[in-house]
Design brief:
The complex is a heterodimer of chains A (442) and B (153).
Chain A: H1 3-12, E1 33-38, E2 50-55, E3 58-63, H2 67-74, H3 87-103, E4 107-110, H4 117-129, E5 133-135, H5 139-152, H6 159-165, E6 168-172, H7 176-179, H8 183-188, E7 204-209, E8 221-224, H9 230-238, H10 251-259, E9 263-268, H11 275-291, E10 295-300, H12 308-319, E11 325-326, H13 341-347, E12 350-354, E13 375-378, E14 391-393, E15 404-407, E16 413-416, H14 430-439
Parallel strand pairs in A: 4-5, 4-12, 6-7, 6-9, 7-8, 9-10, 12-13, 13-14
Antiparallel strand pairs in A: 1-2, 2-3, 5-11, 15-16
Chain B: H1 6-10, H2 25-33, H3 51-61, E1 72-74, H4 84-88, H5 90-95, H6 97-100, E2 113-116, E3 119-122, H7 140-144, E4 150-152
Classes of the chains: A alpha/beta (442), B alpha+beta (153).
């Protein structure tokens, strides 16, 4: 979805009242409580400089929050929420969900990558109990990326290191302005660092995409390429000193920028590139790092749940692979999960969809081949798709109404605190719901 | 970033130089660009055959209001709160180390602009270089805005 479409979609359902504004330059005083240095769990940037001002249980003003985080907050209002269940109804719903899932095993437990670490662990245990696959939404890209990391070796870095050192930044079929709005200003391009004291003036920005994207006007080099030409560009970059060229007006500038850089940061969305491209990118990075003259780090920029790194960590710890696993009866422990949606559709009999919060980019849509399976959905919000779901369980919004440990896209852990003043009474946390489904129905 | 031009606006005016607004169509386009006048100030555009042109002009010009001190217009429909403008503002860079390093300004910090409710807001326009006659002309925020939400006129 392009950013313009996203903005239009955002505006369409914005019937909210404008929060009170103080005159320019005057301190904002019309609030009951204020919370500063809060962490936003809207995307895997996990911005930790957010201020919230609360009045009458509603957020009336935020500082430094981008569109993605703001939209999550706006949807907390009652008209967007599923109604809070009364205790007896919740118990009945959980029982119904447990019975449905236990009678349709194996169950696919999908989408824990938007939860706090404790809830991810609970979802893992539940998947074991229900003997099915345990996967994030972006499981195919996750698997492809980490398989390459294992095969080629993986040079990675904290985003703060990228900010301090990176002289050349490349976004390979990933646009931070669509998925991680503050990425450029906080870490990768505009932020000034220890050795990049003039920020963007000390860096070169290049991007590869199949169509014009929002980031294009900011780029010194922009390669608008069809999917099949990625490898040719990487090979030309790898062997440019042997006279190998690439037919694009920005190629000579890209070569000059790479020659003049000692630190290169490459951000790639593994869901949007093929196996060959990922192979070539890792080979390129390995070659440059082995030559010793410059460092090139590769960081995934997932258009996925905000805690996909947390998911990887739990998966690695439990299973020795970061892309989930299957607990099907005929598999042994450690066997990697299935590799495509069609594969999954053949093996699973029902689905537990964990949808922690509204997805402004509409990335997490169940594919057609899985839609006829019975399913239980855990979701804080009303969504039109719920009319086809068998059981819908309303929950608190992770990271806003409940606490959790989240991991930034570079693996740094952040304790995300919920905002007590706006927490709606009566919503169970996702952790509780998963634990209850586990115990119900025995 | 793409900039609106006087010729782009002129294309959608009646181009009859009828003088009902008190000036020629090209001069009217100039005033539209500076946001001194609105499309509704042209009586001819109210006629049914110019309805589409009027709507297009309103779309091009956006709904942002001009800050008289700085000439800054922010289109809330385009702003995504990415914070690039806050980061590249030379006033912030010179006075606030944390902002220069990428963090957003704190609640008590005195800054020219802030991201409030996911939209950029001028909080201290008097500190902006454009409001100081002796300061070098600056348009960094609008130049780097990736969604063209900021315009300086």
């Amino acid at each position: 979805m392009s950013i313009q479409k996203f903005i239009r979609a955002s505006m369409q359902d914005e019937n909210r009242e404008d929060p009170p504004q103080s005159p320019p330059g005057e301190a904002f005083t019309d609030f009951d409580t204020e919370h500063h240095s809060m962490v936003c769990a809207g995307c895997s940037c996990l911005c930790d400089d957010i201020s919230y001002y609360i009045k009458d249980g509603r957020v009336v003003r935020t500082l430094n929050l981008c569109e993605v985080g703001w939209k999550r907050l706006c949807t907390l209002s009652e008209e967007d929420r599923l109604p809070p269940p009364c205790p007896s109804l919740l118990s009945e719903t959980l029982n119904r969900a447990a019975r449905l899932l236990r009678s349709h095993r194996p169950v696919l437990v999908l989408g824990a990558d938007g939860l706090g670490e404790a809830a991810i662990r609970a979802s893992y245990e539940l998947a074991g109990e229900l003997q099915g696959p345990w996967l994030p939404w972006a499981f195919m890209g996750l698997r492809r990326f980490y398989e390459r990391a294992k095969r080629f070796g993986w040079a990675t870095a904290l985003l703060d290191e990228v900010r301090d050192h990176a002289e050349s930044v490349i976004f390979w079929r990933a646009d931070p302005l669509e998925t991680h709005h503050r990425h450029l200003s906080r870490y990768s391009f505009f932020a000034r660092g220890r050795f990049t004291e003039r920020g963007n003036l000390d860096r070169n920005l290049a991007a590869v995409a199949s169509e014009k994207t929002v980031i294009e006007p900011l780029c010194q080099q922009f390669f608008q390429l069809p999917a099949g030409r990625d490898v040719a560009l990487i090979e030309a970059m790898t062997h440019f000193h042997q006279g190998k060229g690439f037919d694009h007006r920005d190629f000579p500038g890209f070569v000059r920028a790479m020659q003049g850089s000692t630190y290169v940061a490459l951000f790639v969305d593994p869901e949007k590139v093929g196996d060959e491209t990922l192979d070539a990118l890792f080979e390129w990075s390995t070659k440059l790092n082995n030559e010793g003259r410059k460092r090139m780090v590769i960081l995934p920029l997932w258009a996925a749940g905000p805690n996909i790194e947390g998911f990887c960590r739990v998966s690695l710890e439990k299973n020795a692979t970061p892309w989930g696993r299957t607990f099907a009866e005929d598999s042994t422990r450690g066997q990697p999960a299935e590799s495509s949606w069609e594969n999954l559709a053949e093996t699973v009999k029902s689905i537990l969809v964990i949808s922690p919060g509204i997805d402004p980019l509409h990335r997490n849509r169940l594919p057609e081949c899985l839609r006829d399976k019975p399913r239980v959905v855990i979701d804080p919000f009303k969504q039109t798709a719920h009319q086809d779901d068998d059981v819908v369980i309303p929950t608190a919004l992770p990271g806003v109404e409940s606490d959790g440990l989240f991991f930034r896209s570079d693996g740094l852990p952040f304790a995300v605190r919920g905002i007590e003043a706006i927490t709606q009474q009566g919503y169970p946390t996702v952790d509780d719901v998963l634990a209850n489904i586990m115990t119900e129905g025995h | 970033m793409s900039r609106k031009s006087i010729y782009e606006l002129y294309e959608f005016l009646p181009k009859t130089n009828c003088g009902q607004c008190g000036m020629s169509c090209m001069a009217f386009a100039g005033h539209l660009l500076a946001r001194d006048l609105r499309p509704r100030d042209c009586p001819v555009l109210d006629e049914p055959e110019h309805e589409d042109n009027k709507r297009r002009l309103v779309e091009i010009l956006g709904e942002g209001k001009k800050n008289e001190l700085t000439g800054l217009i922010v289109d809330d429909h385009l702003c995504i709160g990415c914070g690039v403008c806050v980061n590249v503002c030379p006033v912030h860079g010179a006075n606030n180390r944390e902002v220069a390093l990428g963090k957003g300004p704190r609640a008590g910090d005195v800054t020219v602009i802030q991201i409030i409710n996911a939209r950029v807001r001028l909080v201290h326009p008097e500190l902006c270089n454009r409001a100081i006659p002796s300061a070098p002309p600056c348009k960094a925020c609008a130049d780097y805005c990736p969604t063209d939400a900021m315009e300086l006129v």
